[in-house]
Amino acid sequence: MFNRKRLWATLPLAAALSLSACSSGGGNSSSPAPGESAGSSPSASESASPSASGNSAGAVTITVLNEGAVGVGVGKLDDLLGEKKKSLLKDETQTPRVKESDFSRTPGQPIHPGVFPYFYQEIIRDKLKSKNITVKTEDWGWGEPLIQKETAGFLAKNIPDIIVGETQMPGFALQGLLEPFPDDMAAEIRETIAPAAWKPMEVDGKIYGFASQPGVNSLFWNKKLVKEAGLDPDKAPASWDELLANIQKVTEAGKGKFYGGGVYAGPNAGGYLRYGPLLVINNGGFADASGNPAFNSDANVKTVEFLRSLNKNHPPGLMVNPQEGPYFDAFKKQQTAYIIDGPWRASESANLGIEYGMSPIPLSEGGAAGNITIGAAFHAVPKDAKNKEAAFEYIRAMYSDEIQTLIADTGVRSPVKKAIAESADYQAKHPEMYLHYQAMNGNVQGLPTFKKEDSKVWQTFGEAVAKAIMTNGDIKGILDEAQAKAESILK
Description:
The protein is an alpha/beta fold. About 40% of the residues lie in helices and about 10% in strands.
């Protein structure tokens, strides 16, 4: 078997300066918020206690990087929870506003989305307190600032006990910068947890990261617009051909007022995360088994041909707009009917009063189910962490029944624990999110990190796809040129 870990251990750390993925889906309120500037230096060593095990007699304080979706502030978790509760009760922007009664939680019952981070961290605190572990959080931002800080932290060997991130995390694992999960923990995860939560962080049979509530893509549609086109709004398209036919009918019915839509394909991480599943489904992808670019495969050529057909069913320039926000705004404003996006599209549509349909992404002819993680905040323990055993206890708490039941009760994302997501009760209460859970199983991948000049390689591919979509040029020739350029960058 090809040893990717051995290869990546010899590569420069600069490769970790990879894509800065947007997990927001063009407006996801639970995405990580921007934090400190990239120029600030890490301070993990100042807050981490001397090396100790998670079950030792002495108290252990671990340092954990903030994830915006569950963040309650910066500092000691014990102190932050009280402050978070006060701020939620005073926050008049919450709709509906958080009340004292919202802090009385009954597992299995719906919760106010505003109090989700509070309950999440309260459960973490209580579970770790029983093991004499306390948590101190730091905020290193998100996206490119976070990647730069983590890269600097690895170089300086000054890194928190738990780091978090999206597209950069598989690259860190491949470079040998992360501690593999203990064998018993990895075995438990493989047996009880959906692959989307850990499979993208697996290298040579070892797991290096975990996401408690990852997203994958599904197909959504506006039932009102679909119905206006004379289509059955409750029927999901079963194939790419049927999807394209439906989209074309909506565009015709819209007469310039609304369009069929499809998928965002901008030359950035937001685009790669959305149309990436189509490449995977059609037996293509971004890289080969050795981690080298595989941009010009015959399968990818056919997928880009499909993307070109979809482009004709959007307002000019929208599908490949370098800024992803306008694309998702068009769906929110009911100007486009179909969209491929993460699970938050369901709750956002409901909040906007859009009657929507949701289904797995249809398959191409000869294709097979596959997906790309999106909005997946992977937590990992660095090799240079000072309190590794205690840090792994934190990650164990993330897939505990208590945390996974909490995630299930929000109805915004699906739990990754099989016993909870596959229960009859969950399927009955959250049929849309159960569909999402099903999509988290099977061939689920993360975006690859290339061995050097990662951002340049991605830019080469993204611009080539945009050119192929927007012009009538030979798609095979355009992708061949992109492949040759990528290979020259990597020499």
